Amino acid sequence: MKYTRFLFLGLIFALCFSFGTAVMAQTDEVDSSVTETSTEADVLDSEEVLVEEEITEVPSTFGLWWREVKERVITGLTFDPIQKAEKQLQHAKERMRIAELMSESEDESVQERAEKMIEKAQKFMSQVEEKREKWTDKSDEKVNRLREHLADFQLRREQVMDKIEDSIPEDKQERIQELRQKGLEQGTRLLNAINNENIPEPVREHLQNVKDRIEEHAEEVKLFRDEKHDLLEKAKDGDEDAKEALKQLNQDRKEDLKERTAVIREKATGVADVIREKGKNAVERLKKMDGREDAQDKIQDLRDARENESEDVVPRLKPNPAEVIRQRAEEIKDSLHRDPPEPRD
According to the 3-state scheme, what is the secondary structure of 287-325? Predict the structure, then answer.
């Protein structure tokens, strides 16, 4: 009995060792592939979230178990802190992609598992954050590329969370929103930690821009949730106008997300090249391409609006997607009052 047990353990050890050896032998090759093919467009493209693997369906229970085994072996046998952070980031991307696919399932039990995938992704990002001191003081090309990838992941994660929130039932969204807020706070801390005066100005500019865009998007999401909550409450009370407005609000939201994704893809095609440029010209081009100056204006407008509302002053906001949604909902309700739908035969 003992002999059989030792033999079994020996086989497991041999398997892990063989797998680990293969992983170490391919490390340089994989890193080279990542360097050549992983641009910001790859990171932000919802259909090309991964470099080495494209996930198109929800893995089976065994597939998820085997994925976790591989993740532990790969990270455990990667000793370079920068390479380890890249691999942990890659695992986080994969888990977010799986969460996205799970949320799109018609099976409610599969949808509920999306929460676990988000938690796994955040765990990997926590590991990156915990070990950041080993490389944040450096400023070579390899580290700056990691900074870019980490920043781009924050944008990509917000895109995925938008889709997940729109896919899952209303009664399941509270926990997802809690995870989203936790990931947002974690991402902000990480972006603050990896941004310092020692890195090239274009890279620093890009990191700051990502922070601004995430903050702006968080404000938009909050406005959308508030408007949706108000319409849901009225719809529950039997308000037919609210029901129609809610349908239109959700439809406008989906169209807005599609437009946002298309714009990000278009911008991503040139951002990576601009970041690698040096000098003031690169910084100015990056500002125009990313729209940082416009984003900062919008954020300040939203902040001013909150302060003005507390003083009963009507805010004057510049147009932004969230405000357009709010205005569109009001227009729908007004039009329904003016021209009620004709009864169907």
Answer: HHHHCHHHHHHHHHHHHHHHHHHHCCCCCCCCCCHHHHH
